[in-house]
Amino acid sequence: MANFVIVHGSFEGGWSFRQLARVLRKAGHEVWTPTLTGCGERFHLLTRDVGLATHVEDVVSLLEHEDLTDVILVGHSYG
What we know:
2 helices, alpha/beta
């Protein structure tokens, strides 16, 4: 099966894809839906230094820490 990393748009969070993640997992896929720094429930981490580079680091860190390869990376809106 496939490994999906689904990245939300701005002003949202990983929870935006809860229903889609459920469907994909039910079909046997692995799914990660991270919330980017400064967004959603991580809003308290927002500073002037948070931007696209920070969000790229968020996704790269997820890939590294979860040891993910051969992922299907899905971006939505800002993602």
